[in-house]
Each structure stands twice: as C-alpha cells, then as structure tokens.
Amino acid sequence: MNGRLKLRIRRASNKRLGGPMPWVVAIMVALMVMIASAGMALSNLARTSEADLSGSLTVQIMEAAEYLRDREAAAAMSVLEERDDIAQLRRVSDRELRDMLEPWLGDLGEGGANVPIPALIDARLAVPLSEARLAQIRQSVIEAAPSARVEAQSTWLAPVLRAVSALQYYALGLVALLGVTTAAAVWLAARSAMAANRDTIEVVHLLGGTDDQVVRLFQKPVVRDAALGGAVGFILGGGLTLLMARQFAALDSGLVASGRLGVADWAVIASIPLAAVALAALTARISVMSVLRGIR
C-alpha cells in the first residue's frame, strides 16, 4: 500500500475515532468497576453470613411470667447441654436484650417490666444443622419448655440472602448492559470513520491493498483510545470503590466486614479494563470488515 495513502487513512481514522471515544470508554469502565465491586461485596457478605449461621439455632422462651420464663429457660439450657452435637451454648442476658430493643421500643424498664422480653438462647452446633436434626432438637426442647420456639438462624436470614442474590444478578446484568453499550459506541465510531474514508479505501484496494491492512489502520486508534479510557475509568472507579470501602469500614460492623473485597476480587476488577480493550478491538474489527464487504 502507498505510504501516503496509509498516512491519510491513519490521520482520518484518528480524527474520527478520537475525541469523545476515550471518555465514553472511561465512563463505562468506571461504572462497570463500581457495579462489579458492589456485586462481589454482596456475594462475599452473603457467603460469609450463610456460613456463619448455617450451624446456629436460637431458642426463644415466650412465657410472659418472669419466674416461669426463667424456669423454662433453665430447662431448655439443661436439655441442650446434654446433647453431643451442641458445641457452644449461651443465654443472652436480659440487659443485652433490653439494649437491643430500646432503640426501637424505648425504655423497657428494669427487668423488662414495661414489655415482657422473651428469654433468648444461642446455640452453635458441631455438625451441620439438617431439617431432621432441627426437628429433633425442637421436640426435645419443647418437651422441657412448652413456650419455647426453636428456629435455625439461617431461616431468619433466608429472605435477606434471596434479596442479596437478586441484587447480584442485577449487578451482573448492568455490567453486561454497559459492555454492550461500549461495543455499540465503538461500532458507530468505526463505521463513521469508514464512511468518511470510503473513497480513499476504494483507491487503496485498486492499488493492491488488502482488507487486513485497512482493518489494522482503523483498529489501532480504537485500541489506543480504549486503553486510555480503560485506564482512566479503572482509576476513577477503583478510587471511588476504595473510598466507599473506607466509609463502610468506619462502621466497625462484623456484617459489613464480611463483605470486604479480597485479592481475587480485585484481580477480577482489574480485568475489566482489559476486557473493555479486547471488546473494543474485536468490535472495531467486525465493524470495519462488514463495511469492507459492502465496498467490494
């Protein structure tokens, strides 16, 4: 191919594909980084919470009379202590229960005189908590404490885990949508550049130039712009993600800490701009080749 024609196509493609293209890619990558980070944090939180609560159960003694409630709680504790499959057992103190409920119900008074507070027993099993085992424990506890309610802690968390799972799919869908949008922007930019240089491309073909040579000339600026935009987007998205992580870490909550991003998570996040560059290069090639087939 003639050197001047090469230079002419390169300049024209740079002019057409430059401009807003790096910023479009940067915005898309930044959004994908933030959304993917949130999705993986939710995944970590759900996985850790499910693992922590999968072998735990709670016993509530619902008896209103305090002396009967204490007697049933002691009987339930005795039944659970005799079981070999119980690894840890603790009765939550009335003071702790009042402290947890006061933000919602106000001052409950000493001993919960204003509002009857159930006795609460936390138990952690040494083995997985199956439905059959839970039913067996429930039956033995209720025989000793008729007002007791025995529930697996994972049962309480199930609606939350389902909501978190839905949010993960939502985040995945948004990332996919942003990827499609990025590909569409590259497609339109490449076709616009090809349309503006149609006459020049026809001359190149007449002089013996190949389609691959033309594709490479149009693909290089796309890869360059996508790499620049991907780097900027990763810095922006990663920086905002770290800022939000620090804000949540200040809450000093065990639940929030369980959603912390690990090394593997950051490796996946770091691959997003690389995937954006690869997607842009592939889209540009397909777009240019489709136009060239129409010219021939």
UniProtKB/TrEMBL annotation:
The keyword Metal-binding does not apply. InterPro entries: FtsX. Keywords: Cell cycle, Cell division, Membrane, Transmembrane, Transmembrane helix. Signal peptide: none annotated. GO terms for biological process: cell division. One of its GO terms (cellular component) is membrane. This is Cell division protein. It comes from Altericroceibacterium endophyticum.
